[in-house]
Amino acid sequence: MGIFLIKRFGVMTLTALVLTFIVFFLTNLYPNLEKLAKSQGNQRMSDAAVAGYLEKNGYLEPIVLRYGQWLGIVPGWRRQTEDGTIRGRCVEFGMQPDEIPTRCGLLQGNLGHSTVAKVAVNEIVWKRLGASGVLMFWVMVVMVPMAIVVGVLAGMREGSRTDRSLSTFAITTTATPEYISGVVLVALFASSAVGLKWFKGSAASALNDGVTFDNFTLPVLTMALYGMGYIARMTRASMAEVMTSQYIRTARLKGVSFHMIVLKHALRNALIAPFTVIMLQFPWLLTGVVIVETLFNYKGFGWTLVLAANNNDIELLISCSMAAVVVVLITQLISDIGYVYLNPRIRIS
């Protein structure tokens, strides 16, 4: 297991470097930098003024060098203006020249400053990740048990009326995008036009007033209904395959009750394949919350990602992308480790 983890961490590090460099390169293309300069100045800036702004703020340096500065392995750029003040990546307001650090990047815990919010990107990313983490937690609490129950009930008796009904329900929920199911749920349960004013609170109030049944039910249901179909279908297929296994037939011939066969013998083996699908829901939730958070005005990670993209906030956009990459890699590692422990055949080999 130790060698496996070392190899996985090496692959994860290389993957993270490649992916973050691609994102860094794409977000720092000159048209994006030009939009950034005009958003910070004015839309009528001349090409010379744009180039001057980019040069003054270190955006015209080689992309590999800037990526190294963002990582914190290369000294940050530094300029001295005509009035004697020092500008640079690592320069904070009020710093004396001997207080300016040489490097200030990802390795030093510095992700730069947001050009829109005018604060450190670290504060924004961690705060918004925490807000989305709360939403993701409740989605998983609702989605995973519901999907497993639906999948197990459908797979216990393959081809039965229960199987066909639950499979149709799972396919329908998965085929309905979040922006449609969210609008439908709002129209049915929160709109005054229909009359079912069951949920009066908005998801935005959860950031200040805390999570309540009133303000979190609709966004959680919107995401849980869409994601449960994948897990339910995988669980159903795995359960149906396990129920036809030889050891299940042997247990039946020995007179073991059907419910005991399902709970004691079939369920654990049937959950091996769905476990990977369940772990893959975390990256989907992190990026999939974009639609739901925008729809319900919940200022989490997805809302921040949309804000950064709309306002061409390069530092914030890169940091959000980096956070998404890290979450994907970590969940894949946990998925691999969990799969090894769940499947004895892999441990033996």
Could you explain the architecture of this structure?
This protein is mostly helical. A two-stranded antiparallel sheet has the order 1-2. It is built from 15 helices and two strands. It is 70% helix and 2% strand. It has helices at residues 2-27, 30-40, 47-56, 63-71, 121-156, 161-175, 178-189, 206-209, 213-243, 246-253, 258-270, 272-295, 301-310, 314-342, 344-348, and strands at 78-80, 86-88. It has two domains: 2-108, no CATH class; 121-348, Orthogonal Bundle (MetI-like fold).
Could you provide a short overview of the structure?
The protein is an all-alpha fold.
What are the defining features of this structure?
two-stranded antiparallel sheet, 349 residues, 2 domains, single chain, MetI-like fold, mainly alpha
Task: Give me the secondary-structure topology.
Blueprint: H1 2-27, H2 30-40, H3 47-56, H4 63-71, E1 78-80, E2 86-88, H5 121-156, H6 161-175, H7 178-189, H8 206-209, H9 213-243, H10 246-253, H11 258-270, H12 272-295, H13 301-310, H14 314-342, H15 344-348
Antiparallel strand pairs: 1-2
Output the CATH topology of the largest domain.
MetI-like fold
- State the helical fraction: 55-70%
Please, what is the CATH homologous superfamily of the largest domain?
Answer: MetI-like
Low-confidence segments, given as residue ranges, are none
